[in-house]
Design a protein that fits this description.
Layout lengths: L2 H17 L1 H12 L9 E5 L5 H10 L4 E6 L2 H14 L4 E5 L12 E7 L6 H11 E12 L5 H10 L9 H17 L5 H10 L3 E14 L2 H8 L3 H8 L3 H15 L3 E2 L2 E14 L1
Parallel strand pairs: 1-2, 1-4, 2-3, 4-5
Antiparallel strand pairs: 5-8, 6-8, 7-8
Helix pairs in contact: 1-4, 2-3, 6-11, 7-10
Length: 278
């Protein structure tokens, strides 16, 4: 992962844990249902962030198992370690690393999980996850739909006119890295696309499907805070001067107001969830 993105994740790790992670829990809960992780299993949480997957799968692996979380952001890992320690999960270990070049031997893990952390060239990443998985081991992964509509699209379209036309190095790097990422993953739009590419690198029993879930924000402020924590949005917002930021804040509230009701704001999310075997 690019240093600029690592820096951004380090910056907002506590906000990410508070604002985003609880809303991902239903997706992780559903993903873990695709494979019965047994006591004593060795599990890799690739791109573990603040440890949501690791701490949810740890009770299944048990204290006789091992759950290794790998992430590029040290600040995210600090939160993950604190959470696992608080739960008494001594089977969890969190290390800084690159999921596209894992510091692990071939055939190391019974289960490899990658939840909303897919990064790098798809075939190369999937081949690396295949490499560290034991024969007959299980791969579980999920990714957001590529073209998200509704509130997400409205937020991004409202942000675009306020983004600087003369970006500094930080914004330029973030834009370039995210554009490259979108181009690399553009061919994976549907469950069938994931099935095809994963079979192409050697996986079998590949099954991919959509999972749809709604999340609730108690008010517009909470909704806006959530969407402002994307790495791209964080970089763009950080480059704004005070006047431009105030103008954007007013514009985004007006743009998202139609999505609000007396209860708050509800947003439907769609993700592709995949299970496969080596």
């Amino acid at each position: 992962m690019s240093h600029i993105l690592i820096d951004l994740y380090d910056e907002f790790a506590p906000e990410y844990e508070r604002t985003r992670v609880p809303r991902f829990r239903p997706f992780v809960k559903r993903l873990l249902q695709f494979y019965d992780t047994r006591p004593g299993s060795h599990v890799l949480d690739a791109g573990c962030g603040t440890g949501l997957v690791a701490t949810m799968v740890a009770p299944r692996a048990g204290h006789g198992g091992k759950v290794l979380g790998v992430d590029a952001s040290e600040k995210m890992l600090e939160i993950a370690r604190h959470k696992a320690s608080g739960f008494g999960f001594d089977q969890c270990e969190f290390v800084r690393g690159d999921i596209t070049r894992l510091d692990a031997a071939d055939d190391s893990f019974d289960v490899v999980i990658c939840s909303f952390a897919l990064w790098g060239e798809p075939r190369a990443l999937f081949a690396e996850l295949f490499r560290v998985l034991k024969p007959h081991g299980a791969l579980l992964l999920q990714n957001w739909e590529t073209e998200r509509g509704g509130i997400t699209r409205t937020f991004n379209e409202t942000l675009r006119p306020f983004s600087t036309l003369v970006p500094d190095e930080r914004v330029s790097q973030a834009r370039a890295v995210l554009a490259k990422h979108r181009a690399e993953w553009n061919e994976l739009q549907t469950p069938a696309d994931y099935e095809r590419v994963l079979r192409g690198v050697g996986f079998s029993q590949v099954s991919a499907q959509w999972f749809v879930n709604s999340t609730h924000f108690k008010n517009l402020d909470e909704c806006i805070e959530f969407h402002a924590l994307g790495v791209g949005a964080r970089a763009e917002l950080g480059a704004m001067d005070d006047v431009t930021r105030a103008q954007f804040d007013s514009a985004i509230r007006a743009a998202l107001q139609p999505f609000a009701n007396e209860r708050g704001v509800d947003e439907e999310w769609r993700a592709i969830q995949v299970s496969a075997r080596k």
